[in-house]
Design a protein that fits this description.
By secondary structure, the protein is mainly alpha-helical. The chain is about 60% helix and about 10% strand. It has a domain of about 60 residues. A two-stranded antiparallel sheet has the order 1-2.
Length: about 100
Amino acid sequence: MGGGTASELWLRIVCDCLGKPLKIAAHADSSYGAALLGLVGLGFFMETKDVLANVGQSHREMQPDKDNHAIYSGLFEKYRDIHARLAPVYHGDWS
């Protein structure tokens, strides 16, 4: 239970990749999240942010490492370049 939030390393990678503070909920398993989304789907709340504001859920916050974010951003640019160069292969343009 807990998925990615069970790993401090994964949380650090996500936070640094996004370059944004990350709020980690005390109740972070997928069934809890599904139940909260179900409340929105059933009309008890209009938006997911309304659910989170009303459940009184405690959390901790992780701040991104700016140096790591710069590294990940540079790697993402390389990925985008490779993806663009391989696009003809992905789309079946074999000419």
